[in-house]
Design goal:
eight-stranded parallel beta sheet; three-stranded antiparallel beta sheet; 14 helices; 2 domains; 355 residues
Length: 355
């Protein structure tokens, strides 16, 4: 039996069907707490940090809110190093580093540990018990899923197609996040080298609502209450918004990122692998231009490629050039509205009622 809206809000202890996307490197405990205190579900992305740092982030949230928290991790297959491909990638990027008087890293490293292999993160979750844990890029082992369920944690997983959604449900995931192709940031595809059907949020949400007996969250291209209301009418139990929160006061987005949201680049988002090694939607910038004509097979595996990408952004930023940043954003980025995150949630709630 499908979960009703009332059951859904009770499940997560939220007042409105609004989820702030985790956005590793952009979202903060302060943002998550403001969202949760305003009645939505605040989220933090901990896939790019270790368990000790994640614990501190949860504590920072708890200092500000007694409401529900979503902690998000990455479940990508651990990277397969390819020293020759990585060396060629370093040489390809060397001229870009030279523009800023810098040198690329001598070697590239796997900078993030997948939750698939991270038992320390699991132990921390079982100790801290965030109300929700969500997965991106895949599914952890059944043992991890059972352990999290045993701690009373609700589990969310991202799907970009029907097959991924069925795999999540079969593994015991409670709620499926339907990520449309419009969404900013990394595609949640389980296999980045497989063909991508590029399903829109509307199409995927309707397919999953029809196919599944669990709640479905719509995400991608949703920036306001009208978009949330549309997702609910499609049968979604809630909507997840990421780009809408990038310009909020509590965001870690730097000045270049915020400026891009207000400018021409926001109207021209690009799906690229060049920055991190996985397909991700970014506002058009110097990095997406560089990656436009590159064969995806030439880019090192995720997150090894990200080691070079982050170093190039740091070199450019030190000289006042923000165009090599991971300026992730969805296709409706021009509708961004800078304000405190709590105020944005309250505005969205009013807009849903009016829609």
């Amino acid at each position: 039996m499908k979960t009703s809206m009332l059951d859904w809000v009770r499940l997560l202890r939220i007042d409105a069907p609004i989820i702030q996307a985790p956005m590793a490197g952009v979202s903060t405990p302060e943002m998550a707490a403001a969202v949760s205190n305003a009645g939505g579900l605040g989220s933090i992305g901990v896939g790019a940090v270790n368990a000790a740092t994640a614990r501190k982030m949860i504590a920072a949230f708890r200092e500000r809110s007694r409401r529900s928290l979503n902690a998000n991790v990455f479940c990508h297959a651990p990277a397969s190093a390819d020293p020759m491909r990585e060396a060629r990638w370093i040489e390809r990027l060397r001229p870009e580093f030279a523009r800023f008087g810098a040198s690329p890293p001598a070697t590239l490293n796997e900078i993030y540990q997948s939750f698939i292999d991270d038992d320390d993160m699991l132990a921390m979750f079982l100790d801290e018990k965030p109300e929700v844990v969500s997965f991106h890029f895949g599914i952890p082992s059944r043992g991890k899923i059972d352990a999290l369920h045993g701690a009373g944690i609700v589990l969310l997983g991202t799907a970009t197609n029907v097959a991924e959604a069925h795999a999540l449900v079969a593994a015991g995931i409670d709620v499926v996040v339907a990520q449309g192709y419009e969404a900013g940031g990394h595609r949640g595809v389980f296999d980045p080298d497989a063909d991508d059907d590029c399903l829109s949020t509307m199409a995927l949400t309707r397919l999953l609502v029809h196919e599944l007996d669990c709640p479905v969250i719509a995400t991608g291209g949703i920036m306001d209450g009208a978009g949330i209301a549309a997702a609910l009418r499609l049968g979604a139990s809630a909507a997840q918004l990421g780009t809408a929160f990038i310009a909020c006061d509590e965001s870690l987005a730097d000045a270049g990122y915020r400026a891009a949201l207000k400018g021409h680049a926001a109207h021209h988002t690009v799906m690229t692998r060049a920055i991190s090694g996985r397909p991700a939607r970014c506002m058009a910038n110097r990095f997406t231009l560089l990656g436009r004509d590159i064969d995806p097979r030439d880019v090192p595996a995720y997150p090894i490629a990200y080691d070079a990408g982050k170093a190039l952004h740091a070199a450019g930023k030190a000289k006042g050039e923000f165009g090599f940043g991971a300026q992730w954003a969805g296709q409706v980025a021009p509708l961004s509205r800078p304000m405190p995150a709590g105020d944005l949630v309250m505005l969205l709630r009013r807009e849903i009622v009016r829609s």
